[in-house]
Amino acid sequence: MLIAANQLAVNMDSGVATPGISFAAATRQSAAETGARNMMAFADQFDRLAIKRLSLTDFRCYRQIRIETDRRPVVLTGVNGAGKTNILEAISFLIPGRGLRRAKLADIARRQTADESPDTMSADGWAAAATLTVGDMNLEIGTGCEAGGGNKRVIKIDGSVKKSQAELGRYTSAQWLTPQMDRLFLEGASGRRRFVDQLICGLDPEHAGPVAAYEHSMRSRNKLLREGKNDPAWLDSIEDSMAQHGIAIAARRQAAVNRLRAVIHRGYGVFPGANIAMSGALENWLESDPALAVEDRLRQSLSESRSQDIESGASSFGPHKSDLTVYHSGTGMEAALCSTGEQKALLIGIVLAAARLQTEERGHAPLLLLDEIAAHLDETKRQSLFEIIALLGAQAWMTGTDENFFAPLGSGAQRFRVADGAVEAV
Ligand SMILES: Nc1ncnc2c1ncn2[C@@H]1O[C@H](COP(=O)(O)OP(=O)(O)O)[C@@H](O)[C@H]1O
Ligand SMILES: [Mg+2]
């Protein structure tokens, strides 16, 4: 049984995949025999998470659209500004978090554009709804903001309203790559932490809980210090929460990155392998001390750094100071020093490896949202990417301006053209 009962609850828990299939062995086999049929046979050993229907209402440039899909990868083509990324963004709201643009919820509701007739109103609320399938099970997910409902995202699963976004993670998972992420290794550590936490949530949906709780506590602490409300009991209790959640985050990251490292190191198709690790003070402490001792040390460090943190307006200790370090395993070079092309290939390799690990651990690959993916890749890499997606059995949603890039997918993908706020099957 590859699907843990606690990860796919109630109406999805009968998904059983054939145990004993070695993904690694299948990957080696695929290198020797790249026939799509062999790969599909492998993918068929696992359940597939796929969107069957996606409906958007007043979502960005879409007034109302509905896309019907099967389990194959999806190709969306259209000119710049057509609305391709908007569709991927809508899908990214089917999992916990702020979506692939990290947009403000208020920016998502459809706005009237200059060429619309004056009697067309801008929208207030918006909705994204999907029918998903895993194995033989169907699942209805709806999310959005109600008109006049303020900045609160409503989540419905099979018709019942859920209190927390985290519920979504028990059923769905998605990983994405966007052109903005091309600078992931060059920019600040916060993007890399988000990236790794996102990968981990696919493997371990419970990870989202402590991440959200920690951020909430940290914001409260920073605010209190900034406002000069130096109430020791209040700060003690916030720092206690930060220490508990902080150590949970660090420990989960370390465990997941260790599992990922073994898979990522091998590389995948023509995508290079990477040596990855979490680094930071907490990680160093965890090397020599048990988790409980590290939790105490974090609590104490936070307490002792209050006056210094009043000046900086930020917290000096915690998992928000850690970083994901990545080295190209072929050249030994740190990712930031690799060429732009190498960095892209490294990123793709990491995401694919995480999808492979997730397939092994949860019984299905995540939805893959690959924005403008083909443009950056030469023909060999594109071919390899398509083969790996087929091997994983992942419903990858890929966008591009040029349909020709996706020609090698043949009948292995379904195609849609995006234009003028509409999406048409081709
Ligand atoms: N809230 C909104 N309401 C209406 N249109 C929007 C909204 N947010 C973004 N857009 C429009 O969506 C279009 C961008 O869509 P996008 O999916 O990024 O295009 P692309 O096909 O290049 O990926 C732009 O023309 C932008 O003005
Ligand atoms: Mg785009």
Give a short summary of the structure.
By secondary structure, the chain is α/β, with parallel strands linked by helices.
Order of helices and strands: HHEEEHEEEEHEHHHEHHHEHEHEEE
**CATH structural fold name of the domain at 182-365:** Glutathione S-transferase Yfyf (Class Pi), Chain A, domain 2
- Estimate the mean pLDDT confidence: 88
Classified in CATH, the superfamily of the domain at 182-365 is RecF/RecN/SMC, N-terminal domain
The helicity comes to 25-40%
The CATH architecture assignment of the domain at 182-365 turns out to be Up-down Bundle
Number of discrete helical segments: 12
Strand order of the largest sheet: 2-1-4-5-6-7
By DSSP, the count of extended strands is 14
* Name of the level-1 CATH class of the domain at 182-365: Mainly Alpha
- Which molecules are bound in this entry? adenosine-5'-diphosphate, magnesium ion
Shape: globular
Instruction: Give the oligomeric state.
Output: single chain
Measured distance between first and last alpha carbons:
38 Å
Low-confidence stretches: 1-39
Main sheet makeup: 6 strands, antiparallel
What proportion of the residues form beta strands (DSSP E)? Answer: 15-25%
Structure description:
By secondary structure, this protein is of the alpha/beta class. It has a domain at about 180-365: Glutathione S-transferase Yfyf (Class Pi), Chain A, domain 2 (Up-down Bundle), CATH 1.20.1050. The chain has twelve helices and 14 strands. The protein has helices spanning about 25-30, 35-45, 85-90, 165-170, 190-205, 210-225, 230-265, 280-290, 290-305, 305-310, 340-360, 380-390, and strands at about 50-60, 60-70, 75, 125-135, 135-145, 155, 160, 175, 275-280, 325-330, 365-370, 395-400, 415-420, 420-425. Strand 1 (about 50-60) and strand 2 form a beta hairpin. Helix 2 packs parallel to helix 12 and helix 6 packs antiparallel against helix 7. The chain is globular, with a radius of gyration of 22 Å. About 45% of the residues are buried.
